[in-house]
Amino acid sequence: MTTRGSILIADDDAAIRTVLNQALSRVGHDVRVTSNAATLWRWVQAGEGDLVITDVVMPDENAFDMLPRIKKARPDLPVIVMSAQNTFMTAIRASEKGAYEYLPKPFDLTELLNIVNRALSEPKKAVTTERAEEPPESMPLVGRSAAMQDIYRMLARMMQTDLTVMISGESGTGKELVARALHDFGRRRNGPFVAINMAAIPRDLIESELFGHEKGAFTGAQNRSTGRFEQAEGGTLFLDEIGDMPMEAQTRLLRVLQQGEYTTVGGRTPIKTDVRIVAATNKDLRTLINQGLFREDLFYRLNVVPLRLPALKERSEDIPDLVRHFFKQAENEGLAAKRISSPGIELMKRYPWPGNVRELENLIRRLAALYPQDEISAEIIEHELRTGELPQPAGSSSSLPDDISVSQAVEHYLQQYFTGFGDDLPPPGLYQRILAEVEYPLVLAAMTATRGNQIRAAELLGLNRNTLRKKIRELGVNVYRTSRQA
User: Fold this and answer.
1) Is the pLDDT higher at 257 or at 416?
2) How, if at all, do strands 165-168 and 305-308 pair?
3) Does the structure show a pLDDT above 90 at 275?
4) What is the pTM of this model?
């Protein structure tokens, strides 16, 4: 059901004004359009409009400069901000200035209509824009692809909350960068950011590292030691590679998340804690749950806001921006300025990047340091990518025949799975676990192929739409829709 209202539109692009006017008028909204900020401000001051849609860059004033005046004059007036700049900082500034929503250009018209309807339907409330201090003007995340726009918008919504975030993605996709951005641009940025990598700490020391220990708690504990929870008090605790946390530590962490307090190893007095938890993993935690290696109740405590980072091969259009960014970093460190030829960039876009952004960064640093020429040719890129490729591990999925059937692939997987337990058997419940592991990629593939359209995906799968919606929620399927131009 559409909630009709009066909508004010400001954009100096006549084509955008026309498209929005026609689309919003067609569903019953009263629309007024202008090409400048002065007229928009005059309408707002006069009390006109139930909602504003404005571009950031206007001929006479930047929308970010006008937003505080709008929020002061009419605190409950929702403002949707559009921008062709499409950077992380644009999304953050829109959130900081009190925008109801940020939309990158080109935008999905259906999505905009849904946002407009939601904004008009929700109870009116003032948006708080007070900040302790302005965050640093930096660019922690780079890329303008549709996948990254979804990340930016999600992060912008999370900045003013303390919700627990679970970041998933392959190694090298930038999970710690995202965690740091959540901290540095959030309301806890004046507190400490403390990171701990579960995979890098001996299993018998993880509890001591997290919660600290008392003198004499175990052999070698000659003094009291503070844990990461205590070090992160008032700030953010980043739990990297959470899938490698042993079961005993998982139980203690769950207790902390439930009760908001912990005890040191060897201690008896509960200690209250005030930290924001951001966890990350490159593993499929649902598979670990099915294998009895990760607590399901802890997963749901950590997975309050799931955030999946796309692999670099899923956002190859960001490679030129990333290349310029890493070359600039190298230049700031004293290396000569460099660029890559257009054929070289195209070659990089086609490369699968098994090491993701980290692999790309290492390549750029190598090019900046080892090659004297100002422009790096496609031949050099081809040579570096070929010599830098890692051999495929034995038994990897890429060693299977291209024409293998689903049944044969599952049989191959089960043979490896049973082998991993040696003379023992896997935990009970194998039948449901295997069905769940097949179901997730099937639903994900259907949603990706239909660009997130649930009606078409349900038809493709032969499912009822409500059943598909339930599956998406239960399986945690997250699809990045590619934007269609307005």
Assistant:
1) 257
2) parallel
3) yes
4) 0.65
